[in-house]
Amino acid sequence: MADIKPEGKSIAQIKKDLLNPATTSHFLASIGLPTTRSNLLKKFQDEIALKFNLDQQAKLNLLVSQTALPGSRLLTQEIRNNFPGVRERHAYRRQFDDVITLTFYVDAEQYLPIRYFESWLNFITGSRLADDDGSSVDRPTFSHTMKFPDDYKGSLELTKFEKNLDFGGVGRTKIMTYKFVNVFPLAINSMPVSYNSSQLLRCSVGMAYSRYFVTQGAGGKVDSFLSTDDVGRDFDNSFFGSPANAEAFSEFTTNIIMDSRTRGLPNFFINNNKIINGNIPLDLA
Fold first, then answer.
1. Which of 5, 189, 236, 240 is placed for a possible disulfide with 204 were both Cys, Cβ 3.0 to 4.6 Å?
2. Which of 95, 68, 282 shows the shortest CA–CA distance to 178?
């Protein structure tokens, strides 16, 4: 093993190596429902008035306000006395975190994250409001009949990138995507409501998974789920239609506003640059 020799660094090297840290506010989540029984799952969505389509899927991904990049560790077996006075540790398994928690902003149009995961849980447990055989969840004798695991497990991806990444191509950042295997919602956390001063409603969901692996994403690009026109249409009608404050809006837009000079920035935000500066116009407040 070579000894480390201290060396002088130029200002250019310091700027290149130390003054370009990654930030926590640039990421994109992609949540996918199970596809094996999509027709049956739609019945559970319709029962709780969830109108779900590709636009709503993209909107759900953008509503993720907070999560955590997953972790893992190696489990080891301790071995003593193979060599006198030496303790060895040999790896025999990689252990992943049990749950990843996603926190969503809840839109005022149809409470999309709540209905999305409630319908998914209803599908897993077979909880129908009016089942074909006459049984329903409001009956005292109702019992759960769980689906087979392959029927209810979906997908989840988390992509980490930085603000110097162009939406139209590959920027200076090499994006990193975490792909999760055998994903399904494990718990929906309680959401306090009160008559005190209003705050943005958030929905936190714990997702179970078997393992994850890391890739460079789709060709090194962040996947685009909405066109620029779709972004303006969906959020103008739903999120901005409810009361908001500048601080909360700034937190919400962190994931989708990269830089005022970034190419491919949705026209909606370019035309309303007062919002980016922290001022919400009267017609949106």
1. 189
2. 68
pTM of the model: 0.71
Taking a C-beta distance cutoff of 8 angstroms, is the pair 140, 92 a contact? no
For 217, the token pair is 């994403």
Residue 170: exposure state from Cβ atoms within 10 A (0-12, 13-18, ≥19): middle
139-164 burial, b if ≥16 CB within 10 A, otherwise e?
eeeeeeeebeeeebbbbbbbbbbbee
Are residues 149 and 183 in contact, defined by beta-carbon separation less than 8 angstroms? no
256 near 250, Cβ under 8 Å?
A: no
pLDDT grade for 15, boundaries at 50, 70 and 90: confident
Q: Which residues 6+ apart lie within 8 Å of 282 measured at CB?
A: none
Distances (CA, A) of 52 to 6, 48, 109, 119: 59, 11, 12, 11
What is the C-alpha separation between 219 and 199, in angstroms, rounded?
Answer: 39
Which residue type is seen at 208? A
What are 173's two structure tokens? 């950042």
3-class DSSP state of 88:
strand
Residue type (1 letter), 238 = S
Provide the residue type at 62 as one letter. Answer: L
Q: What is the pLDDT of residues 245-277, one digit of tens each?
A: 444 444 444 444 444 334 344 443 334 443 333
Q: How far apart are CA 119 and CA 111, in angstroms?
A: 12
Q: Supply the pLDDT for residue 282.
A: 40
Beta strands 211-215 and 27-32, pairing class = unpaired
Q: Where are the domains of the chain?
A: 23-68+94-272
